[in-house]
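Worked example (supplementary).
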Amino acid sequence: MHKQRRRALATACLAVALAALGLAGQAQAKLTGNYTRFAQCPYTNLAVIKCIYSVTNSGEVVLGNKKVPIEKQVVLQGGFGEEVEEVSPFFAATNGITLSKAPQNVPGGLAGIVPEASSPPLVKALIKFFFENSLTGLTSTLELAKPATEIRINENALAGEFGTALKMPVKVHLENPFLGKNCFIGSSSSPIIWNLTTGATSPPAPNTSISGAVGFFEFLEEGRILEMKNNKLVDNAWSAPSATGCGGILAFLVNPIVNAQLGSTTAGHNTAILNNTISVASSAALRKNNAENP
Amino acid sequence: MRTKQTALGAALAALAVLCAMFATSASAAPAWKFEGKALEGSEVVMGGAFESALTIPGLTTKCENFLYKLSIKNESGTGKGELTEMPLYNCTTNSSACLVNTIGAEALPYPSHLATFGTANYVIIEKVKVGIRYKGEECALGGILVSVTGSAGGEVNNTTEIATFNSTTLSASKTELKALSQKIEWSGVFPTEAFQWHREQALSVS
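After joint prediction of all chains, the assembly is encoded as:
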């Protein structure tokens, strides 16, 4: 009796071990070659039709009086599903990093002192040293203001240079020792909504129309991956709410100072220009590649 | 002093002759001809491509049956026309992932005219608009409408009665086709044959 129990227990343990090994094998399945960039796409979810991996390499975000060049790469990744009235719902990246957080340096730092373009190099260097150091320097990080499921993609608009190609609810995280850790422009309840287009914008004054570009298409893996190089997504018709949470307990004092520095952030005063390389893959192709490389 | 005046006079005369020559060549726009005689009235030219291929970098689409119907006439000595029909059937791609779901000419008719570039005569098809939708579970382009737009110039060979469209003829005729906002390659070899009043008559352009 005792022996039988032991044997049953051993068999169960073996089965569990084998199952674990099997699962481990599945988890270790890897995408290969051109497909590896889509590793964080939830492509095993059958509701996901395509996967996107977009790298913003340069561009700028103008928020009121502040112009922040994009100098550090920002990655948007995830999947999207069947389109409903030309717009596809978004699925978050499996590692939770749908939009990577890349703190961008704000020229002039907290004081906002930016040298004239014609200033001598020494003046530029001194201003950078005094106003963009770890104490007075200011960074701006773009973050998603709402769950990734709130992002919307319109593939035909993206490829056709018309309408909204990518709709993203975002917020801007301003960071500096004096501002504390919770200084934001935009929030989940009051997000900045970017309606990015590869076509032309129609902003209110004083902004004027600017144009994006679909860029250059190339098909990889016999059409299973679509790559758009030199893609340019723009929006200069968005509005931003006032800064909140700046200066910790002194927020009631610091928020107005930050808002005064920014100036008007109503629609027509802000711009987003994102220069990207966008890759799109069919999730079925990713599942196949994954299955072929256990 | 007189020598200088003579030289100036000769130079001006030479310039005048050159101008007259260029003016003549610019005004000599090609016309549609049958058996060497300029077409009067109108005619319908029809045919099917011997071969054709459209390439967006990495994806080539070929149609086994690429037919056309071109209504032609001469206006003030220049060949004009209208592409009124362009059915495309049995289209495939070089991709194992992407199939052609739908393909078709949109916004017909396309105006056309004859033009001379260098020593060759071209038939220029303008305002082309062809919509293509690809399908395939693994196709990254699935669901996206690919719109081919622009103009295309094909060289007309009077001996073979064939119009050839390719990257060289498009470039030579200063035309281009775009899809997904970028220049694409299109090649096609089309026989030109009258099907109305000038059946079995030699069609030429000059």
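Two points are worth noting when inspecting this output. Chain A is about 20% helix and 30% strand. The two ends of chain A are 41 Å apart (CA to CA).
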